[in-house]
Write the structure tokens for this entry.
Amino acid sequence: MIEKRPRKLQILGFEYTIEYHASLSDVTHDGRDMAWGTCDYQTATIRIFDDGERPDAEVWHTIWHEVCHAIFSICGRTFAGKEKPDEEVVVDQVASGIVSVIRNNPKVFG
Ligand SMILES: [Zn+2]
């Protein structure tokens, strides 16, 4: 099982910094009221809410959710900063699938 949380991730050749914040207001940077995580394409920074109380699986889901946004952005599938609702649904489903595969294949990803 992967326990160590990443501080840097190479995503399709781009180095993203992963930050963990205990305050929701430190996670959001785009005027939204709240988000479990955000992906700042301009600075290649992913911010994750982690107050030490969130279950590990939820934190990892948020990490993969934001990684999916980064992948979409790099592949040109984002909409100039305006995320459409369908992107959120697709990203969330893909993130759930990734977390499930990683968690259920400890011999491969451990
Ligand atoms: Zn999202």
Notes: The chain has a mean pLDDT of 83. Residues 65, 69, 88, 91 surround zinc ion (CB under 6 Å). The chain is about 40% helix and 20% strand. Strands lie at 8-11, 14-21, 37-40, 45-49.
